[in-house]
Structure formats: C-alpha cells, structure tokens
Amino acid sequence: xxxxxxxxxxxxxxxxxxxxIYPEAMHCFIYCMNDLFGISVYSCMMFLGEIHVSAxxxxxxxxxxxxxxxxxxxxxxxxxxxxxxxxxxxxxYGMSRMQYTIPQEFGLYTQxxxxxxxxxxxxxxxxxxxxxxxxxxxxLFLFMxxxxxxxxxxxxxxxxxxxxxxxxAIFGIVKVFKKENxxxxxxxxxxxxxxxxxxxxxxxxxxxxxxxxLNWGMNVMNGTDTKEGRTQQxxxxxxxxxxxxSSQNESESQSSESIQQESDVxxxxxxxxxxxxxTETNDxxxxxxxxxxxxxxxxGEYIKMVYKYGYAQLYGDTRAKWLLGFTLIAGIxxxxxxxxxxxxxxxxxxxxxxxxxxxxVIFMILYAAPFLGLPEIIAGARLCLTEQVxxxxxxxxxxxxxxxxxxxRKMAYILPYLSVLGVAAIYAGTNYFGVYHSYxxxxxxxxxxxxxxxxxxxxxYPKQRYTIISTTDEIYQVIESGWHEEIxxxxxxxxxxxxxxxxxxxxxxxxKNPIQYAQYHFFAGPRWLAQKKYSQYYKYSNAVISEGSAxxxxxxxxxxxxxxxxxxxxxSDAYSNLKNRTILESELYFWCQDFKARLPYEIQVYxxxxxxxxxxxxxxxxxxxxxGSK
Length: 630
Fold this sequence. Notes:
With about 625 residues, the chain is α/β, with parallel strands linked by helices. About 60% of the residues lie in helices and about 5% in strands. The chain has 24 helices and eight strands. The strands form two sheets. Strands 3-2-4-8-7 form a five-stranded mixed sheet, with helices on both faces. A three-stranded mixed sheet has the order 1-5-6, with no helix packed on it. Helix 4 crosses helix 17 and helix 22 crosses helix 24.
C-alpha cells in the first residue's frame, strides 16, 4: 500500500512513472478523484475497494445476463459466490485481496466486460448492419475500451481476459473468422493495445526503466519466485515422483531381463526363420501398442494432475468430484443444445454453455500449470476469484435450462419469485450444511486506536504545524495536512549532537505492546453475516494469525536498549521484524521518559490506552528544542 500511495503522490508532483514503468490506470484514477473532487488520496486508498468490488459484481451480472438463457440464473450464481465458503489458503488470499485498493483487483471487472462485449459483437446480425450501411459498432468499441482498460490497469487482468475470451470465441470460431468480423476484431484488439501501451512505450523510449513488479511477474513464470510462485514446489514433487518411478522401473526391468534370458537359452536352438519373422512382426505390433498406451497414459496423467493439483487442492476431494460431475453434465447439456439448435436452424450455432464450461477448465489448468510442467503464466492465487465465478456459473447451467423452460410457458410469471426463493435457499442451505463462508482477514500493521488518534490530530491541529514521529503507517494519513518522521530515522538522528524538527507540535507514538507487523488478523462478528473457520487453514503455515482482540505483540523493555538492529533496508521493512520494532519502540519510550525528567512541563501525555501512548511536545518555532544527544 505504501508503494501505491507513493506512485499517486508522484503523479501529484508531476512525475509520471515515478518508480518505473508500470500500468498506472488505478493511480491516475485516484489522482483525478483527488484533483477534481478534493477527496484525499488516503481516503481513496482506504475505501475504493467497495467501489471496485461493486463494479466487479455488476460486470459479472451483465456478463451472465448475456450468456445465460434465463435472466434469473445470474442471481443464483451471485448468491452462491457471496455465500459459499473456501477451503484453500489460495482462495482465501484471493478473496481477501478484494478489500485492498491494488491494481489487479481494481481491474478484475474488465475481463468480464471484454467477454461480454465480444459475445454481443459475435451474436449480432451482420446483415442488419449491411442493410443500414452502419460501420460503427457500439459493442466492438466497448470491447476495445475494456481491453485497453485491462491492459492499462494490470497485465494479469489482460491475460485472464484473453483466456476467458478465447474459451468463448473458440466455440464461435466460424463467426470470428467471418470476413465482416475478423478484420474489425483485429483492428479493435490492436487499437486497444496501442491506446493502453503507448504511454508505457514512450516512457521506455525516453529512458524511464521498468518497475520491479514486472520482473516479479517474470520470476513467477520462470520459477524463481517462491512467495506466490509454485514452480519450485512442483519441481520438487516431480523429482520425488520420478525417483520413485525410476526405482520401480529398474526393479521391474531387472526381473524381466532375467526371465527373458532364461527363455532365450531354452529356445535358441529351435527357432526357425518363419518363427523369427513372426516374432519380429509381433515385436513391432507390441511397440506400437506400447507407444499408444504411453500417449494415453500421458493424457491420463495430465488429467489426474489437473484433478489433484487443481480441483482437489482448491476444493478438497469431495467437492472436486462434485465439480467434475457438474462439468460432465454441463458438457452434455452443451452438446444437446448444440444439436437441437443445429437441427432446428440448419447452421452451426454459437453455444455459450461450451464457453463457460471450457473457461472453468482452462482456468483450472492455468492454476495447476506448474505441476503439469507448464510455465506458471499467472500466479495461482490470483486466478482463484475468477475461477470461483466460472465454476459456479458452470454448475448453474442445469438450473438455467429449467428456468429457461419455465420462462417459455404460461408459468413465466413465477420466475421472479423462484429466483428470490433460490437465493434464500442458497443462504439457508450453506448455513445448514456448514459451507457458509467465514470472516476474511486483513494484514494488521497498527492498532485501531492509532488510526483514530491520527484523524483527531489532523482535524484539530493547524495544517503543516505538527509532526508525528511513528512507524510508516501514519505518513500517508497525514501527508496532506502535516509532517511525519520515521521512528527509525528519529532513532539515528537523536544520537547526533544536534537534531531539530521545525514544527510547533511534536507527537511521539509509542506502542507499549509493539505489534507483529502485517499479521493475518481475522474479522469477527455475528454468525448470520459469516462464520469463524478460515484461520484453521493457516495452522501449518508460517503466517502469524490473530483474531478478535487477541493481537500478536511483544512488550517494550529497558533491557533491549542499545541492542543492534537488523538491517532490512527501508524503514517499513525494518518494522516488520518484531525484535527491531520492540527495540525502536523501547528506545522512543525511554527517550520520552528522559526528556520528561529534564523538562517535565514541556512534554505531556496526549493519549494513552493499554497498548499505545502518545506524548506531545509544544515548542516555540523560533527556539526549537534540540532533540539530539547532549
């Protein structure tokens, strides 16, 4: 979050791509919100998540309204998406990211818009356009702008949009390559890419380097990233399996060789030329059969690997079997619909059931890619949210058929009531069967009381006349109204002979219980809103977990004064080490105590609770206190 804050303030200072070339559409959007409407950047970063989540749900709604036969099926899919729980840390991580204002999640809606407008364009009647001599097509234009938006926001979103559109378009390939469609589609794709890529290309040509996140994406692909990338894990599993298989093959080979030698000794004297020829023919047939078996075995192994490291890993064996069953049903429904439409209209239909089913399978293959020996094009956890939507859409296809059939009869008036009952049944059913979702987590970096304290200072004290000395978290909360000094910087500068901070008010934030930085802190609340069960999936991970009021922390102590800090580069990284944080908070606390002993009336406690204490010094700007050592 610090990084994205910094990039937006780079725009405010007139520095485009201040940290290097990176898709900056989200940052430009927030910059415009700030510049045009005066909304603080901090508020945008805190609360924009609700807006892009709403945009995502609306995009899913519009997409499914277009591809489903009944307009009421979409309500069942969205209800299931918002209620069904998750059983894998990758899924939980992917859903938790939706709370944050970060580029990929900000742009996830664009992939569904790309697919929506592609479908609408391919479904249109080209003859009608010819009759009206209409060159402009609204759907193609919106497809182009959706593609441009995805690429300008985040490359992963564009990749997901490609696979989603490809899964749908492949079953309308005849429409794609029609003379009146293909040229227009190619131009739209190229135009969308040029619109979004032009600023980055021009910046690169002017000498601005690429931002490090792009290298991270490449590291995921080549397997050198281990934080989100799983290629090394897959390679380790593959090497173990190969070692076991080679050991087993070696023992089998030794056994077959001994048997063959005994057979050769017994029959070497009695073999005729005809028998030799027959033996050679049999050997050739056997080799051909063995080759076919190997290819079938390879395909079978790939399917097993997708099941094991895709469906089963994300959803567990029981749910994975259900998902495969629904995939089979969806495939059968797609074929039946295709045949009926082809017979009825005597032309190849554009069957979207095929597209939804294929997309759910393709995204699962992308997730399991490193275990299939394929490059991990997109980090697995980043695919989970889109895959969840696609799987639920695929599972809803039988319900869509039923609702469509009802809609074509006199009973159509009951459909709105059926959809309401369906949503209520999903909510009740997920609770009854214990598959209702749990509360998500956020990465806790400071106490809630500190956030309120900073808001209070920013609203009560004159702008640019106060400085907060604390960890990095306050810098962007007060950057538009006050000043900030890192505790790490204060720690080193206070050891100098002379050190001054030239503002009237100084606020020293001290954590009496230094917090474990970025711990996974799960929300709590009423059971009807969510349950409490996701933390169990992190039991065997290295993540630091806390729930409710139980926050992982240490205690400041005089015993740690003077201990060396672990050098971790920038200040925010230094605070992520609990020992470092404890030393720094202890040093600041006892510095305040020493200042109070020397000047008892010049420093006062501005705020205190069981976890945090804030000291305030009011100084004369014309005669500043020397905060350095004496």
